[in-house]
Design a protein that fits this description.
Elements lengths: L8 H27 L5 H23 L4 H42 L3 H11 L3 H18 L1 H6 L2 H8 L1 H16 L1 H5 L1 H33 L2 E7 L4 E7 L13 E6 L9 E4 L8 E7 L3 H4 L10 E7 L12 E6 L3 H10 L4 E7 L8 H11 L2 E6 L15 H7 L7 E6 L1 H13 L7 E5 L5
Parallel strand pairs: 7-8, 7-10, 8-9, 10-11
Antiparallel strand pairs: 1-2, 2-5, 3-4, 3-6
């Protein structure tokens, strides 16, 4: 019988993050109070907004630094979600910083806000850099909005997002040159240097040093490319000492295949088989240029992989038995989890038609070997069972898995399907800590 940990890694990591942020909010408030009031109340409000904005920007960097300890416990989905909401806070705080500072100085000088902004940019060192940083952050925020994000290719969005790092550097230089709490207090200077150094260091470690070190150590190469169907292909990858690569079933890598014209393209794909220490396998559907080009990758091609990432693993189990729910090509991490999860497992595989059931033969063989139960649920979105229930409705789920409330549930598929399953699970009273969902819109 599998022994499950009573410690919930996700709750521990989330509590730790909020505690660190809360402690820094309190310290920044003290630094602001010690700096004393400004000549105009609006300037004081603007400075406090700027300090909190700087703190949240540093916190954002930590959220997307891809630090293994955090990522394994919260997952990139949740960290990216926190980053997104924190980003809205940064935008509003920086807007407030600009508006209140300019309005305050305009009150003191008797000039208009626009004229005062031009004067500050031309006469106060660091202000022009702050304006450039503000424009960059607003641009990145605009392209990160859901409407714009859906219209942009992942590579385009990612390239634009990199300008955030330039904005961070410009904003910090502005703070060094003209921040009141920074200029007048040795302790404040030490704090802000440590904060920004730690945040940027976390990014450097998680997104540069660790990937370079792992790729140098493991020297990944394509071993074989196997078509699974007209639109789906599996890529087998080998390397050195793969047994030391800390990858788990359910996780994904961000892959770069070092071929002419494609080495710059980074695409996230889940492992479609549990790591065995000898090879890695990804399976992808041709939904874009990156995934479509995999069919033409040659054996022997060097691979640069960032990861493993994701908290969609058996690490977060709370029950002895499990339900795995997959939709479309979202079956890839589910298939890998089926190899690793112990206890009794039920698999629900939702597809539009049986021809879309990727890796179905492997799932059947695994289920038979593991004593698991596999239900294939084909049909259009409006399809219903014999009792008139939609295939992923609470009624049908309860009929297929009678003890669903006493199982961990792992869900991976297109966002609409995942949302439908989550609603059904809530209606059935499945506790939140037993539900583990992976968003598959990015990695598809």
């Amino acid at each position: 019988m599998t022994t499950l940990s009573l410690t919930r890694p996700r709750a521990l990591a989330r509590t730790g993050l909020y505690a660190v942020l809360g402690a820094n909010v309190a310290l920044v408030t003290v630094l602001f109070a010690e700096a004393g009031p400004s000549a105009d109340p609006l300037i004081s409000i603007g400075r406090l907004s700027g300090m909190f904005g700087a703190l949240l920007m540093a916190f954002q960097l930590v959220l997307v630094a891809r630090l293994p300890w955090l990522d394994r416990r919260l997952g990139m989905d949740r960290l990216t979600g926190l980053h997104r909401w924190t980003g809205f806070g940064v935008l509003w705080l920086l807007v407030g910083h600009l508006v209140f500072i300019v309005s305050g100085y305009a009150d003191l000088s008797g000039s208009g806000p626009v004229g005062e902004l031009v004067t500050l940019a031309g006469t106060t060192e660091g202000v022009l850099r702050a304006i450039v940083a503000f424009v960059l952050i607003m641009t990145v925020g605009a392209v990160s909005a859901r409407v714009a994000r859906r219209k942009l290719a992942y590579e385009t969005w990612h390239f634009i997002h990199l300008y955030t790092y330039l904005a961070v550097i410009l904003a910090f230089s502005h703070q060094i040159l003209s921040g009141s709490s920074f200029v007048d207090s040795p302790f404040a200077r030490a704090y802000w240097w440590a904060l920004w150094g730690g945040a940027l260091g976390a990014v450097l470690l998680g997104r540069v040093i660790l990937p370079l070190w792992r790729n140098s150590r493991h020297r990944l190469r394509v071993a074989a490319v196997v078509p699974e169907s007209d639109q789906v292909v599996s890529v087998y990858i080998t390397g050195r000492d793969l047994g030391r690569l800390p990858a788990k079933a359910g996780q994904f890598f961000i892959w770069r295949f070092m071929t002419k014209g494609r080495w710059w393209a980074a695409n996230p794909f889940s492992l479609s088989a549990a790591p065995d220490g000898k090879s890695l396998r990804l399976t992808a559907k041709a939904l874009g240029d990156g995934s479509a080009s995999l069919r033409h990758v040659k054996p022997g091609t060097r691979v640069f992989a960032e990861g493993p990432y994701g908290a969609f693993t058996a690490m977060h189990r709370t029950k002895q038995n499990a339900l795995l729910v997959a939709g479309g090509v979202g079956v890839t991490p589910i298939r890998a989890l089926l190899e690793e999860i112990r206890g009794h497992v039920v698999v629900l595989y939702r597809v539009n038609n049986q021809d879309d059931a990727v890796l179905l033969r492997e799932l059947l063989e695994l289920a038979r070997a593991r004593g698991a139960v596999l239900h294939l649920l084909p049909g259009p979105v409006t399809a219903r069972d014999a009792d008139g229930n939609q295939l992923l409705s609470p009624g049908n789920l309860a009929g297929l898995v009678g003890d669903i409330a006493d199982r961990d549930v792992f869900v991976c598929g297109p966002p609409p399907m995942t949302a439908a399953v989550m609603r059904s699970l809530r209606d059935l009273g499945v506790p939140r800590e037993q539900i583990h969902a992976e968003r598959f819109s990015l990695a598809s």
